[in-house]
What we know:
The complex is a heterodimer. Chain A is mainly α. Chain A contains ten helices and two strands; from the N terminus they run H-H-E-E-H-H-H-H-H-H-H-H. Chain A has one domain (about 5-255). Chain A starts with a helix and ends in a 6-residue tail after the last helix. Chain B has a six-stranded mixed sheet, with helices on both faces. In chain B, strands 2-1-4-5 form a four-stranded antiparallel sheet.
Amino acid sequence: MKMPAFVRLTMRNIVVNIDPGTLIFMLGLPTLYLFVMGFMFQGINPNGGLSVVYHGIPVKYTTFLAPGIIALQAFTAGNVGGSMLWSDRRWGMFEQIMVGPFRRSEYLLGIIFVSILFSLIGSAIMIGFAFTIPVQFNISLAGIGLFILTMIVGTMLFSSLFLIISGIAKSMQAYNTITILLFFLLDFASTAFYPITNSTPEWLRVVAGVNPLSFISDILRNSFISGVDSSSLYYSGILLVAMLIFFGISLRIYKNIRSGI
Amino acid sequence: MNDTGDDAYYIVMEDVRKSYDGKKMALDGLTFKVRKGEIYGLLGKNGAGKSTSIKIMTTLIGFDGGEGSISGYDIKTEASRIRRVIGVVQQEESFDFTSVENNFKLSGMLWEVPKKARKERMEELMDLFGLQEMRKKRMYDLSGGQKKRVQVAREFMHDMNVLFLDEPTVGLDPIMRRKILSYIRKRAREGLTVLFTTQNLEEADMICDRIGIINDGRIVAEGTSEELKTKFGTLRTLKLTATENMESVAAEIRKKLGEDQYEEIDISENRITILGKKIDRSLGDILETLAGMDISIDNVSIDNPTLDDVFMKVVQK
């Protein structure tokens, strides 16, 4: 049986991206965050570790942190996926694939599929790690459904963001600088690691409030801790709209990419 | 129409025009045809339009006017069909960021080569291109020449009707270059149509059945290497080596021949190089002059025009 072109491209993307560097970036760093930051910050609180109140529910910091770390998988997988275009342009493979039996849309699908695959597998591994801490998750069927949808939409959003950067960056230095800056800004100026409180500076609240990673983190917290509610659906709607906008922009830029860097 | 008969033209470019900025023409009426199983060399100086032509023929970029077909498929309307029957070795390096072996496997997988054939072809190509020792190495760790070898070899993982080679031997050592060229020749004899660009004219002379010289976006000379040399390479070279002072010898030769029999006489230590359209016919007079001066000659040679001469003449017209 013939394999569709986008499946072959997805398989190629998996082989090319299964390397120690990518695995450390995708799984190693979040695992370190989960265990090191989780236990260190939890240790600060003298109050038996019940240090964060989320939607009125007091939880240990590790329980608060775990959904944020799982949400990070959407970001890292999106980064890995979006960066594939950059890498293919840099190493001449974009042009090589474009003169092969593939359509541009199939190449794009190959990137998006591998990003989503990495994201879902990575987040499943992180959930597994979280249970070893252990965390106090309250998982429902609706929660699992929303978690999967959120990871897919979130990954597509971040893939689109990095596709945009891959499409417009003119040099490796420019690409690396932009991605590192984004990595720090989106990672740490979000609610993935810390709750927003009254003592959080106003400007940082604004940044975290518009950061897509905050939306994903909070939807996952609702799914795993407080339960799916109207705010989950509201956040999901915003995330979906943001994803469609970014995806649209990335498509426009992608259509005009002609050759290597 | 996809005419695949043995006499079919597998590459047809007719009056193809292309401008990137709407002002300067990158291709300005490019016209040439290549038959099935033929190796066609596209020669030209930098910026003459070689890479633009390849990008158009491989459907990477569009063009403003004219017509073209590859393997019988129209470039404008049947691009996806063309991409299924061509192979391309780009001038720039191109590889998957993984091991040499994986690059072959992935190429086979992407082109839907059956698993068994994939493995057999990979081994055969690795043997042929001397890649066995480095099969586990990552592409990034290879030298430029090694990467080029993989890039060329990998393209033969899949079946194709037409192969575009954009300066495929840059960075290769002479032994590997000969091996690759003879493999390309073998494949062409089996029916593969090859379009080949190179800056190495000796290489083009060796491998190409026909050559087109492109200048300012159009073909300015075309034919077999011999035809081009006969048509454009008018000057033959006579070289004389002796142990004597050649200044006085040159003066005597100039006197004997007269200006209409030669174009240029060059003296370098104990060697005289004389360029002329029919300089071979003056050999008797030259030898007579030397005998008159009682000079013994170490070596005499007459060289035919080279493709270099043709190229220089055609592109500088």
